[in-house]
Design goal:
The chain is α+β, with helices and mostly antiparallel strands. 55% of the residues lie in helices and 14% in strands. The strands form 3 sheets. A 4-stranded antiparallel beta sheet has the order 4-5-3-6, sandwiched between helices.
């Protein structure tokens, strides 16, 4: 595929910067920072535009905090100025990334997402007798920046854009050599893009009968158990030698009729339900919601929790969670 050039100048165009601001401002957690930026919007965007023109953008810093949802994660949130910049970059680059990615990659893509991945996985489970579920150990913090930048250079020939991406990615890296921050729009897209060669290995070289990837969680389906065992061996070698990563121990190879945990659900041939961890989390969140005083906030939060559960056969789990919360 032809390498893309002349992208950098599109990033600092005024209409693109304004669109980037409004997209960044949609995030609820950016409310105060967004209002401060908006209070002198034209001046702030002009300053960002000038920095981009002069190629002196290097990142404005990060705020780090820890969440437990459900396991501990260190979130590295960029400053609002950088959020606007990341949106401006992805407004221009995302259409090109789309052309480089395969259909069955579902994270960080318009018209895709977790629900689409679940539906696709449910269909594959109905068609094939065996599955192989794998994921990457400590994925974001293990991404090798030199290898990521080398992959980008094979797709992009605009040197100024490559230099900008290099500065931004290294500014948020855990070390000079590896790691992307969790919590950055740019790093989410880059992390999804980094596994593009893995997608093509599975679909074009191994020719698996079914495949779905949601960020670093991916599943292969086939009717031949031996074929999936050989795929497992080749994927492990590719992940280690080509991408500099490591599979988590305990990959799961089993018959689809026994069910498979994926994206918070337990997937069976043709149907799915909440998995055990998601049922516990739903019950815990509903108990917390019941403790809130503001009824409007209770309603909004409960709708969000129950909407997630409705993506599978979860009527009984929702009923039990609500009953326990009301009697607590």
């Amino acid at each position: 595929m032809k390498r893309q050039g002349d992208l950098y100048d599109s990033i600092w165009q005024w209409d693109n910067l304004r669109r980037a601001f409004w997209r960044a401002a949609k995030a609820a957690r950016c409310g105060g920072a967004a209002r401060k930026f908006e209070s002198d919007l034209d001046a702030n965007l002009r300053a960002l535009q000038e920095d981009l023109k002069m190629e002196r953008v290097a990142g404005s810093g990060f705020t780090r905090f820890v969440i437990h949802d459900p396991k501990m994660r260190v979130i590295t949130a960029p400053a609002f100025h950088d959020r606007v910049l990341h949106h401006a970059i992805m407004n221009v680059c995302e259409p090109h990334f789309e052309r480089w990615l395969v259909h069955d990659s579902y994270a960080c893509r318009k018209g895709k997402g977790r629900l689409a991945a679940l539906k696709r996985a449910t269909c594959h489970a109905a068609r094939h007798g065996w599955f192989l579920k794998l994921d990457i150990r400590k994925y974001f913090e293990s991404i090798q920046l030199d290898r990521l930048l080398a992959i980008l250079e094979r797709k992009i020939k605009d040197r100024r854009l490559l230099d900008l991406l290099t500065r931004l990615l290294r500014a948020g890296a855990a070390t000079d050599e590896r790691g992307l921050p969790i919590g950055s729009l740019l790093s989410q897209h880059m992390a999804n893009f980094y596994l593009g060669p893995l997608d093509r290995l599975c679909l074009e070289h191994l020719r698996v009968e079914g495949y779905v990837r949601y960020m670093d969680d991916f599943v292969l389906w086939a009717d031949d158990q031996r074929h999936l065992r050989e795929c497992w061996r080749q994927v492990e070698v590719h992940v280690r030698d080509t991408l500099g990563l490591e599979l988590k121990t305990g990959g799961h190879l089993n018959q689809t009729k026994h069910g498979m945990d994926f994206c918070g659900f337990r997937i069976f041939p043709g149907w799915r339900t909440l998995n055990r961890r998601s049922r516990r989390r739903m019950a815990s969140k509903i108990r917390f919601i019941e403790s809130l005083i503001d009824e409007r906030e209770q309603q909004l939060r409960a709708q969000a929790v129950l909407a997630f559960a409705k993506e599978g056969s979860s009527w009984h789990a929702r009923r039990r969670a609500l009953a326990r919360a009301s009697t607590a």
